[in-house]
Amino acid sequence: MLIKQTILKGCSMALLCAGMTFPALSQAETLRLGGNFAADHSSSRAMEIFKAELEKADVDVDAALFPAMQLGGAQENVDQVRSGAIFGTWIGIAYVSRIVPELEAVSLPFAFDSREQAFKLIDGPVGDTFNELLAKKGFTALGYMELGFRNITNNERPIESADDLDGLKIRLQPNETHLATFRALGANPVSMDVKELYGALQQGVLDGQENPYSIIETKRFNEVQKYLSDSKHFYDFIVVLANKDNFDSLSAEKQAAVKSALAKAVSWQREQAAAEDKQARQALIDAGMVFTPISDETRDELRARTSGIKDTLREKLGTEIIDQVEAELAK
């Protein structure tokens, strides 16, 4: 009888529990972000700060980071974000210009005198315009880091005059303004994803390439390139992009946490990148690259040869965005 009562009591408790609702254990939402930059590049380390700050926010959202092309090349990362396959990417802005051509407006050759001038531009009305255009294409721009001034390397000769670029087969990012600029300089530019670049230089398919010093160092291009210049022909940004639908699906609290964490990461990276730029150039020289400073006279000649690029951009993008960029640069 006692056994029967125990069984009945157990069944009653089971039925009672089945009808009760218990609070579910919260599970953090994981945001997956991929990048093509090396793990030790300042942008990838900044994303680690983003990840840590997001965890500190304690809003049940965290980040999984995949630097160094773990999820594919730069173009693939952009497409993955656009399709929603991953939440976001940190990427050179040129790789997004095929989707939002207006981003090329900051690719005017020899337009920037300093990184501070570049930050002021991208943090102001021009950046707001870019963010609106990106949103129309399904992206949310979360922030802009420094990629930096781009400089030429090659295996043929030091760049001492404007004529030294004649005929050089140089890899550039997939940005029509970048390509047009180097055609105007007499070079033979080739668009290529960065994931293919080291091999192409190693095999002699290309004579050279152009990148900020930090990229030349972290991608080890010094192993397959001899001559290094300080041409500073473009200043380049890294944009941190999220899939707009995925970002909008986050609660207001989580969106705020993502933005706050990213703002701290961007602030750190901009300061760090400036110091690492100098360190990277010296490291490349110490590793055996032949460094040739470009004189003011040569830089003026390079600027003169590319003066028509602005008119080409006006025809392509319209006058409004170019006028906006020029007005901000003139301040």
TrEMBL record:
GO terms for biological process: transmembrane transport. Keywords: Receptor, Signal, Transport. It holds the Pfam family DctP. InterPro entries: DctP_fam, TRAP_DctP, TRAP_DctP_sf. The keyword Aminoacyl-tRNA synthetase does not apply. Residues 1-26 form the signal peptide. It is found in: Cell envelope. GO terms for cellular component: outer membrane-bounded periplasmic space. Belongs to the bacterial solute-binding protein 7 family. This is Tripartite ATP-independent transporter solute receptor, DctP family. It comes from Marinobacterium lutimaris.
